[in-house]
Design goal:
The protein is built from seven helices and nine strands, in the order αβββββββαβααβααα. By secondary structure, the chain is of the alpha/beta class.
């Protein structure tokens, strides 16, 4: 999907060199046996881009276990997804794809997710840069700046509602978010 390519390359320009050919969205739910479900998966021959939306939750599948060499290992759903995709590639005889995960989070939830990633996915997050946090304010800005891409979409009449929904989650703290909700409720009652 060309919009997906444009989005990924603009939201994180450093990914441009990894995405050389058009990405295609997986039209099937990507569910792994006993391992969970990927929200959205884009792929081409070279790369798999996992998109996880964490509006109200943290990382899932958090595990601490002892590796065969005796070290304590930690992982979350993200490394599980990477491993499962690699297994699928091997079983299908496909070359190994590079893997990247974009985690969409409300601005007020960013620090919580970042702390979880630093604990459970330190290598993928800090060293390999395979997990990238994308805040809702970044998403909102991108969609506002690229709204012409959606003018001919069958969903264009819902675009203002979509932007409004994103806008509710671009506050830096949960208190700011709650205050904005109270103000909206107050105005609704006051101006009825």
């Amino acid at each position: 999907d060309e919009v997906a390519n444009k989005f990924i390359k603009e939201i994180k320009p450093e990914l441009s060199n990894k995405i050389k050919s058009k990405l295609f969205v997986s039209t099937e739910k990507v569910t792994f046996k006993r391992r969970g479900r990927i929200d959205i998966l884009f792929q081409n021959d070279d790369v798999s881009v996992i998109i996880e939306n964490k509006i109200h939750s943290g990382l899932n599948g958090l595990k601490i276990y002892e590796s065969p060499n005796g070290n304590k290992e930690r992982e979350s759903q993200i490394s599980t997804y990477f491993n499962e995709l690699e297994k699928e590639e091997y079983e299908e005889g496909h070359k190994k794809r590079d893997k990247i995960c974009l985690i969409f989070v409300p601005d007020y939830h960013k620090e919580n997710i970042k702390k979880q990633l630093e604990i459970y996915e330190k290598n993928l997050f800090e060293y390999d840069k395979k997990i990238i946090i994308v805040t809702y304010s970044m998403l909102n800005d991108w969609f506002v700046n690229n709204k012409t891409l959606f003018e001919k979409s069958i969903y264009c009449k819902y675009f203002p509602d979509f932007l409004n929904s994103l806008g509710k989650h671009i506050f830096k703290t949960k208190n700011e978010y709650n205050q904005s909700i109270m103000e909206i409720k107050f105005r609704t009652v006051l101006f009825k």
